[in-house]
Amino acid sequence: MANGVDERADQLNKNCEIEDAPSTFKAVVWQHFGFPVSRNDKGEKQTDKRQTICKSCRATVAYNSGNTSNMRSHLYITTQKSSEHNNLL
Ligand SMILES: [Zn+2]
Fold this sequence. Notes:
It is built from one helix and five strands, in the order βββββα.
């Protein structure tokens, strides 16, 4: 189920709005990730629930229906190479 969003790409979304995960999402990683929000032609907000954005570095991380392992590995891997995420774990 690889869908092309990989760690190396590190697509940054500096200007992207981030919507917090609903409070029903209990996993700790949701404190560090939100969903990207875009606007359609009418200026209406649209939330893409197939990917998440790291609030620390704004990298896009794929999110597959309830599976947060991509997000956890993002926090883990990124902590190894930068201090940016050190306070997250
Ligand atoms: Zn990050």
